[in-house]
């Protein structure tokens, strides 16, 4: 959990420092991490399981890859419009949404405190989303919330497949199509994929090695062994860690009231996902 919290907190900073468009940073993050996990899967002798995937699992992998690419592309683009602290808080509000989805569509049962926490988190998200009347802020909020919704879908479609594959085989099956989808989006938007400075390429490498391997890959390891909330709770630390790093490295600060709304959101998520009694 500590590795995940620290790894995730570095993601937004590396995206901003890269200076590259969001979909481009996402593309190289996914290409490099896909190569790493594929090599690890091959070294463990489990790459053959990918060749035996059923048509259903292949479709799940493609869907999971599409949603992961959307998550990265939308959220990373939001960082051009709003601060790291606000963007990360919004995109990481998905645990509360998972509870809402479970109640509405899967008839899951939750304790009253979990439902209350989810409601509080959603109030915090709403207040934070409306905390600045500027047009660019609204665009950034919509992009970040879109990234959050894509994250919910990514986690939902991959759960069943994860239980049938080991970690490195599963993430190879997801990361590779995600890289292809993100590259296609970058090209469709007319972005340059190749000609960047050494600093930018180091940021791409950092995104693959730290938040991708130490964050998403570890999270996917846990998803095969624990429920969604227990597997992803470490991301609650990301808004705080990212906000601190953004202030120290990027000199970013936000309005005091936005800190208050962030605190409301995180308190609600904490109430919703931390085991009670």
Automatic annotation (TrEMBL):
SUPFAM superfamilies: Multidrug resistance efflux transporter EmrE. GO terms for cellular component: membrane. It comes from the Archaea. The chain crosses the membrane at residues 29-51, 58-76, 82-106, 113-131, 137-155, 167-187, 193-215, 227-250, 256-274. Pfam families: EamA. Keywords: Membrane, Transmembrane, Transmembrane helix. Residues 3-129, 139-272 form the EamA domain. InterPro entries: EamA_dom, EmrE-like. Signal peptide: none annotated. This is EamA domain-containing protein. The lineage of its organism: Archaea, Thermoproteota, Thermoprotei, Acidilobales, Acidilobaceae.
